[in-house]
Amino acid sequence: MKLMASATGLAATGSSYIYASGTQTQGGGSVAPPYQMRKLVHGVCYYPELWPAEDVDRDIVEMKKLGINLIRIGEFAWSSMEPEEGKISTRFFREVMDKYHEAGISVVFCTPTPTPPVWLTHGHPERLFVNSDGERLIHGARQHVSYEHPVVREACFRIIDAIARDLGDHPALIGWQIDNELKCHVAEDFSPAAVASWHRWLKDRFGTIDRLNKEWGTHIWSTYYQSFEQVPAPFKTPFLHNASLSTAYRMFNRERIAEFSDQQCAIIRKYSEHPITHNTNPMFSVNHERLFENLDFASYDAYPSSEQWDALVFRSDMYRAAKPGRPYWLMETSVAHNGWLGNHSPMHPEGFLAAEATLVYAMGGEGFCYWLWRQQRTGAEISHSAVLSSWYKPSIGYSQVQKVEQMRQKLEPLLLQSKPWVPEIAVTWSDHARAMIETEPMDRDEEFPDKYQGVVQLWHKKIFELGYHREVRFEGAALDGLKFLVTPAMPYVSEEFLQRVIEFVKAGGVWLVGPGTGIRGREHTVPTTSGLGMVDDVAGVTTEYVFPLTNTGIQGKANGQVLDFTGWCAAVKPNHTDTRVLGTLQTELAPGTAFLTERKLGKGKVVLLSAHPTGDAGEKLLNQLITGYAQELGLTEPFNVSPGTVVSPRVDHQGNPLWVAVNMDGEGGRLGVPDGAQDATTGARLRGSRIDVPAYGWRAVVKPQ
To answer: Does the record bear Zinc in its keywords (predicted)?
Structure first.
């Protein structure tokens, strides 16, 4: 293939636009029926237990004025419902829900497990969370208990059972949220109960201690174990623990917290048929794919400043794909600014909040919710913005909430009669890879991301900035609808994942294997049969060396360009006649080796980029790779849109392409449109080849077929 300089032309229309039908599955999960939105949710996180009961009535009046049609309640209210152990009452919340049902405002109820009451831990230090330094946390804030302790779990499940039994059939209720932001303040649990659970997990995983010793290579440094009970949790040690141990402990914790969520879901489903979600964030210490496996829809939080709006694009692309065919929710965002004791972010400029909401809805969201309704008068987050001040006056963000509702009313008819277009290009998200890179940070220069999420976002942003509609798919996700898959920084490539990718490639897809992929085994060991494990064979190469390139001065050549690099490099040579070298390394240490190869496989291609190019030349090469293969595959042409403006492609109920363009940088934008396009809100035919998008404004365009 000849690498091409750039993609050109206006966004195409036609048969490549398809409905997100809800028939895709993640990792072999059950097929969900198609879902149809009935409204765009405009919601708020609400804490009536913290204020006088008589305030509920005036809250309802104010919410109706603003078009708030949903409240999220309960996540921090455990001590209000169970002030003494075993004495549970949900009466207050039933009365609140009665009033909101009468007002036509829906409710999502959260399980209150993030903030266990003091009676659960006072005098019982063994029930508290312990961090990796061996420090036992105390009651206060949240997430201070060990969910591995059987008494803690029993208490959690007891109150969830009472809430679900008492409120699960309430007419105001439309959904449930498990906990809130699991593992946002803490990471791995090192409590005695967690360590005991760790030993059971290891036994289930390996069966025998001999197998663990063999797979982890424990004779190194005499860490050989005679029983599972001897395997430590990775507390501080004089130097570093075995990589296998550290990564396994992360995976164990993340599996167990997902099981904790599963058990909550099972209790709720005994009494209620409403869908269940969890509010998370890519930064939290959970296995996102495993966590959402047993949930009904995805939700996330985001508190971006006006300069961080691209985080909304990334998270929307990630959580839209988490539960295919089911719209996600943005469950928390700030009205004006984020804040807690001693910290706060800059306030949003005029119009940004409405742009944020437009983007979330247009990209596939059903819910847009604020944290919080009324400024907290006590606690650690008293400096956080809210819709109303603690003295019950409109906040500085109140008028912006009004603008969101004005936008929602105009946009809702368009979105209820359309669905997101399934992208043709995606970036892989691997929770196993993330755990490995937390154990073994990547070699990098100062300007390269230091976390796994940053590397995935780097590729995602590159595709986005080139104008292609894209998403982030979990490692176990189906590859339905895709033509182009990019998998960066995935040290272990499982046989199961590889088989699905091989089928995808043979059917005509292109798999771009990014740097750092394949260099480790399942148990965070080094492959012993080939440098990149099974990836060598699929890519049609032999890996000669794997080594760090940062600050070595080693360069490469590809497509007539001289390149500098950062990170780990796999220096390879082709070993199949159908493998071509597209980029070579220029060093006497690895003579005759390549960093960029292409192998034909069936109707498609496997492209191995085994070192990350940097600088202007590196950016140019990455752009050429993406646009070149996109054009070769016949991907829908990229949107001709100015930087800072996001296009969300959808398809309406008649099969017509519908684009919603939102300006997010406050500078205003432009969008190229095809002949015959119409303004979707007025039906007027658009004149010329482009339209202007106002600063923090939006335009909707439809192209009748």
So the answer is: yes
